[in-house]
Write a structure and sequence with these properties.
This protein has 550 residues and is α/β, with parallel strands linked by helices. The protein folds into two domains: 28-239, no CATH class; 267-459 and 507-533, Aldolase class I (TIM Barrel). It has 19 helices and 15 strands. Strands 2-1-3-4-5-6-7 form a seven-stranded mixed β-sheet, sandwiched between helices. A six-stranded parallel β-sheet has the order 8-11-12-13-14-15. A two-stranded antiparallel ribbon has the order 9-10. Helix 12 links the parallel strand 12 (352-357) and strand 13. The longest helix has 16 residues, at 494-509.
Length: 550
């Protein structure tokens, strides 16, 4: 018998049969996508769905391009302005849809129905540490329906490979500032680079002198040439060169706020809806724990006060009279703040607004002008009452400056909201005691105490890794600052950090002034009633007998 006809265990199916096989079988994903693409699409179908997915436990979570994904203790519903900004960059070339499942109190069943209804070809979502597996479930649902899935945010930017590797339903990660990267990626995949409107062409040309389309000689897309992208090349995960920051934020279109559920956004102490206006990006301060630097490093880029006013008037036409000036550091540029306040007063726009600040980036004159322009509350990152803790964290602003700035604000008629961190490196039970006592001395209307969170990409994260301070068995979902902690210091284990976090709030809140503030929250609006109740319930319960102070 000839060897040609001889069938053995070793050559079975590898000779003449192999010649009948194609060079490469398509994967199951490729087959599904091809079938779905050939099916007729309904009229409601969109090109791109920009998504804030359902939350892990039904609570309100923070997911924005600058922030971290924790559950909001105050039940503040965070406007998804970063999605509205990206939608404005994609429209009208592409048909876009924003779904804010968090604001809409939407569960996975209803969300899945929306995926079936709108059948997006691309699915864009932010991914954060505390909601990682939850966010990836949204990608799985969209991917299984044929969509290309794309993630951005402060969690995936420092660890794109580590995010893509365990989650095959995620196709792409946008590393760093995502606005131009999402437009560039979709234009390449859709073959519409030559169809870009003049303003989009100018945006790419003005902000990246090295920019060129990532097209191979045969006309196919060279994914490796798209800056700011992480992607799969077979089994390999490729992270491309970074994309340059947008030099002039004034060149970005005004976010499409009208695509957001504006009436659903709520903040404690205000009656009715509110939303964000992004006034700048970046912060020059060097705080080691701050996740903002992961996306924007230490640059600070301003928007024109005139453009901010244009956006304010648009929102006012939509019935929004409460604004939070959303920035990594709102008062980073005094000239911008002063000009904006002067315009608000001169144009009599008559809105109430809030902002954040550092205690060393204000002065008495500016705070008085802000109050005249409608500012009624400032949130301050105070962090600690111990100067050595602040020095180690490179905070650069110390307790004496905090007390002075907050008294200036109070004198101007502005309420003070203070944020404190329990568990920064060097913390002891004695330094925590100092922080609690210091918080009681300050003219604060609201105070919140968080457990320190070492987010990937921050200097604090690498310090925790180097010193072995991560609790054994740590998962990303535990990086929550409030309900759990991943930290386990030799002198302050996780249980003690959580104990002190709760005790700090109780001690601060159980005094006549704070109690009066929370009563005002109860009567101001139904949503703030829930907020105040939630804050109280989360902090008034003892965890266990072993957590009690001996």
């Amino acid at each position: 018998m000839s060897s040609e006809k001889s069938l053995t265990k070793e050559n079975l199916g590898t000779r003449r049969i192999a010649k009948l096989r194609p060079a490469k079988f398509p994967s199951a994903d490729e087959i599904v996508r091809q079938v779905l693409l050939e099916l007729p699409r309904p009229e409601e179908a969109v090109d791109i769905m920009l998504v804030n997915p359902p939350t892990p436990d039904g609570g309100y979570y923070i997911r924005t391009q600058h922030r971290v994904g924790r559950r909001t203790r105050e039940n503040m519903v965070w406007p998804q302005v970063s999605l509205a900004q990206m939608a404005a960059l994609l429209h009208p070339t592409y048909k876009v849809k924003i779904v804010d499942a968090n604001a809409e109190r939407m569960g996975w069943e209803e969300f899945t129905q929306l995926l079936d209804k709108y059948q997006p070809r691309y699915y864009l979502t932010q991914v954060t540490a505390p909601t990682l597996e939850n966010d990836m479930y949204g990608c799985f649902l969209a991917h299984s329906r044929g969509a290309k899935t794309i993630a951005f945010g402060t969690h995936v930017t420092p660890i794109p490979r580590e995010t893509l590797r365990p989650y095959p339903s995620l196709d792409f990660v946008l590393v760093g500032e995502a606005d131009l990267s999402i437009r560039d990626l979709v234009d390449h995949l859709e073959g519409k680079i030559d169809q870009r409107p003049a303003d989009i062409q100018k945006l790419f040309a003005d902000h990246d002198p090295l920019y060129k389309p990532a097209i191979k000689e045969d006309g196919s897309v060279d994914l490796g040439g798209i800056r700011g992208l992480a992607w799969r090349n077979g089994e390999e995960i490729v992270v491309n060169l970074p994309r340059m920051f947008i030099k002039d934020l004034n060149d970005l279109p005004i976010p499409m706020h009208e695509l957001l559920p504006l009436q659903k956004y709520r903040m404690p102490l205000i009656k009715g809806p509110f939303t964000f206006i992004v006034t700048s990006r970046g912060c020059p301060a060097g705080c080691t724990y701050c996740i903002k630097h992961v996306s924007y490093q230490y640059t600070a880029r301003m928007r024109s006060p005139k453009l901010i006013m244009e956006e304010l008037w648009q929102l006012k036409k939509h019935g929004i009279n409460n604004i939070h000036m959303y920035a990594d550091l709102f008062t980073v540029n005094r000239d911008q703040v002063v000009e904006l306040c002067q315009l608000m007063i001169a144009e009599k726009i008559n809105i109430r607004w809030t902002c954040n600040s550092r205690v060393d980036y204000v002065d008495e004159e500016m705070l008085n002008l802000m109050a005249q322009a409608g500012c009624w509350l400032i949130s301050w990152g105070i962090e600690s009452g111990n100067e050595q803790i602040l020095k180690h964290a490179h905070k650069g602003a110390y307790p004496d400056k905090a007390e002075r700035a907050l008294r200036w604000a109070k004198s101007a008629g502005i309420k003070n909201w203070g944020y404190f961190i329990i568990g920064l490196p060097g913390e002891t039970e004695e330094t925590i005691r100092q922080t609690i006592d210091f918080s009681k001395k300050l003219p604060l209307d609201i105070a919140l105490f968080h457990v320190a969170a070492p987010y990937p990409g921050t200097p604090f994260f690498f310090e925790v890794v180097e010193n072995g301070w991560f609790r054994p068995g740590t998962r990303w979902e535990q990086v929550d600052m409030d309900r759990e902690t991943v930290l386990d210091y030799p002198n302050l284990p996780a249980e003690r950090l959580l104990y002190w976090q709760k005790r700090a709030f109780r001690e601060w809140a159980f005094r006549p002034g704070p109690i009066l503030t929370y009563l005002k929250m109860l009567v101001s609006d139904v949503s703030t009633f829930r907020s105040a109740l939630s804050v109280g319930l989360q902090h008034l319960s003892w965890q266990s007998k072993r957590e009690k102070q001996p």
